[in-house]
Amino acid sequence: MPNTASAPEAVTERGLRAFLHGLPAVDEVGAAARAQDLATRSVKTTAKARAIDLAVSMVDLTTLEGADTPGKVRALCAKAALPDPEDRTVPTVGAVCVYPDRVGTAVEALRGTGIGIASVATAFPSGRAPLEAKLADTRAAVAAGASEIDMVIDRGAFLAGDHLKVYEEIAAVKEACGGAHLKVILETGELATLDNVRRASHLAILAGADFIKTSTGKVSPASTPPVLLVMLQAVRDHHRDTGRRIGVKPAGGIRTTKDAIRNLVLVDEIAGPDWLTPDLFRIGASSLLNDLLMQRTRLSTGVYPGPDHYTQD
Amino acid sequence: MAEIFEYAPAPESRSVVSLRENYGLFVDGGFAPAESGETLTSLNPADESMLATVASAGPADVDRAVTAARLAQENVWGPMGGVERGKYLFRIARILQERSRELAVLESMDNGKPVKETRDVDLPLVAAHFFYHAGWADKLHHAGLGTDPRPLGVAAQVVPWNFPLLMLAWKIAPALATGNTVVLKPAETTPLTALVFAEICQEADLPPGVVNIVTGAGETGRALVEHPGVDKVAFTGSTAVGRGIARAVAGTDKRLTLELGGKGANIVHDDAALDQAVEGIVSGIFFNQGHVCCAGSRLLVQESIADELLARLKERMTRIRVGDPLDKNTDLGAINSADQLRRIREATDSGEAEGAERWSPDCDLPSEGYWFAPTLLTGVGQSHRVAREEVFGPVLSVLTFRTPEEAVAKANNTPYGLSAGVWTEKGSRMLWTAERLRAGVIWSNTFNKFDPTSPFGGYKESGYGREGGRHGLEAYLG
Q: Which residues of A touch B276 (CB under 8 A)?
């Protein structure tokens, strides 16, 4: 049985293929059934209150639009630092996530808050650019002050069977990151099968990812429970084999508190409670935060405030 | 970190259940006490509290029930057209769906199984069995059983305590669809959902005498199957009792189907999807506390992956939540009775004494009620008692094999033949294995999946006859 500890020393296409194709298969029906089973967990009262605060602290508050202006980014940063102006006990979010050319604005707006600044890079979202352009993109974001880089893998290369190209690109971007944390986006909606998700997860981990991330949010389907389940199994197995913990970030389509809590249940019961920290689990989202805040108020006061009590940024 | 996300208790409310203190026998459309006045008490196995007392039927009561069933069969139900019978069955199915939450909670209280299972498995299947057979009621001449298949008459049906309402549905739905009337005896420890089912028959205006429920212990069952007025006996339960019934019925013209014990093999080949195989192993043996005749109680794992698989299995077993059956987050509930708990303990101890290594995850068992932690026995040999005899509890015996031939030989080397599971990503190996297994149900990359359209039954000492599907109709038509 191959494990991630016995990864090939000199990385070759043949070695990568043998390793990735030697991983245990994933049965799609069984994986979906287990995810569905865990979706029936009932998280109420005190457990729900803790889960909501945990989820808020794990949000990577995201804006990734062509129309992003400095003003939009500043508004988002203000929200990240003070999610609910009517309740200052709400924790701050994990990070804000922007395009590289908006990192500078975010750095200024978040100075002194301790909130991370994540930047997508490497010709996000398609990744269809020469390696040099991807590295320049990454270096620019890091130079502007990004503490986390969310890169995309070359799905075309992966689907063509060129694992080595995917590996080398991730390794090169990792080097370009310097001290910044690297999140590797697999874009699972384009990988299609759970076998591919498992292989891409291990490939990214092997190449140096600090986090593996499901999606760009620009492709449907984005994060789904079975995909997250398989990625959590990958980091669990990697930890068992090497002692090293890799983070996981689902992104796209997580809009409600119920979705977020179901994600946390998967983390708790698949990877284990050690992953229930913003250092090892993030949720890429934009509209989720307001729903978490609304449910939080509902739990503590018993009533739903109207949506206008929460800021639209 | 574990405390951060400890799930708060999420109990299902008992208020949806309105139990009476006493229940009589349901005979000829009404409830009446036993002639002797004797009763027995049904307990909640999760806390040993008393739920209700029910009448204990004697031979005179059984005779009254069989007579009522005979009259109803000859005068009302038998002559009735299939379309009309189907309407009654559809109506019962709809009421079962409408009252499913109440029945799920009650089943959990009376049996000890988690409400997650009664809600998501038992009750949906109960309704599905009635809907499925309702559809057959007016199409029996298309079932491939002759152009004019006839009902047998009165069916005596005895069901076990592991799936009280579901086994009732497996028995009553096909019998009624084919024009038979029934006298059914639920298990001594789990009579309550059958009595609520009797109320549902009243609610559906089912003609009196078509369904009769006689509660009681083994003696009641004996009186029922030995009654000369029944035409058909259907039994689900232990092989020992099944043997006795076969003897009692021998030499009479009663038709008989038996669904008995099992010692199902769950075969995991080295190319299996391991994480899903682990899920299938867990579902195979810990579903319903292992109180499942078709449980995958023998894990046959290819020796080359045994360590890896067992490590994953143990890790998964630490996540099994044992406790209050009514908590929506409970995975493993209470053992059904003190007697059964004693048998499980005794069998598990014997496995250890014979040299198996015993392992259970850390779990706090409640102080009251009947509880047994999920248990692995590794290093089990074919000759060990735990590999041969049915434990009927959350205890998995682990054996290894080296080649596909050896897996099949070991899987078949049992007096039983009810179920088996095969885990491999290789289609040709799946088919090769399935062809050679002597078991009534073979699950391919899954376990413990049921459907009313699929016939269910055993080989060898697991019994004979099939329930469900077109094949299941045959047992009730002459």
A: 26-27, 29-31, 34
Q: Do A45 and B276 touch (CB under 8 A)?
A: no
* Per-residue confidence band for A10, with pLDDT thresholds at 50, 70 and 90: confident
DSSP string, A127-148: --S-HHHHHHHHHHHHHTT-SE
- Predicted-complex ipTM score: 0.93
B161 & B216 share domain: yes
Cα-only R_g, chain A: 19
Does B215 lie in the same domain as B307? no
Catalytic residues of B: 259, 293
Residue B229 lies in a domain: yes
Residue in A150, A210, A237, A291 annotated catalytic: A150
Q: A312 — contact with chain B (CB < 8 Å)?
A: no
Backbone angles phi, psi at A184, to 5 degrees: -110, 115
Neighboring chain B residues of A234 at a CB cutoff of 8 Å: none
B280 touches chain A (CB under 8 A): yes
User: Do the beta carbons of residue B37 and residue B125 sit within 8 Å?
Assistant: no
Q: Do B329 and A1 touch (CB under 8 A)?
A: no
Instruction: Confirm if B5 and A54 have CB atoms less than 8 A apart.
Output: yes
What are chain A's domains? 29-299 (3.20.20.70)
Which residues make beta-bridge pairs with B421?
B266, B443
Q: Structure tokens of B378?
A: 């590794």
Q: Which of B5, B7, B319 sits opposite A276 (nearest CB)?
A: B5
Q: Is A150 a catalytic residue?
A: yes
Question: In this complex, is the C-beta atom of B5 within 8 Å of any C-beta atom belonging to chain A?
Answer: yes
Q: Is the minimum CB–CB distance between A22 and chain B shorter than 8 Å?
A: no
Distance from CA of A26 to the nearest CA of B (A): 5
Are both B246 and B310 inside the same structural domain? no
With CB atoms and an 8 Å threshold, state whether A54 touches B274: no
Q: Could you say which of A24, A54, A264 has the minimum Cβ distance to residue B274? A: A24
Nearest by Cα to B318 from A272, A172, A29: A272
A269 in contact with B at a CB cutoff of 8 Å?
Answer: yes
**Chain B closest CA to A13's CA: distance in Å?**
23
Q: pTM of the full predicted structure?
A: 0.95
pLDDT in tens, A173-189: 999 999 999 999 999 99
Decide: B398 and B376 in contact? Cβ < 8 Å.
Answer: yes
Contact predicate B237/B260, CB 8 Å: yes
Supply B443's token pair: 């699950």
Range of the domain at B386: 265-444
pLDDT (tens digit, 9 = 90+) per residue, B114-139? 999 999 999 999 999 999 999 999 99
Residue A204 has pLDDT above 70, yes or no: yes
Residue A39 touches chain B, beta carbons under 8 Å: no
The CATH number that applies at residue B83 is 3.40.605.10
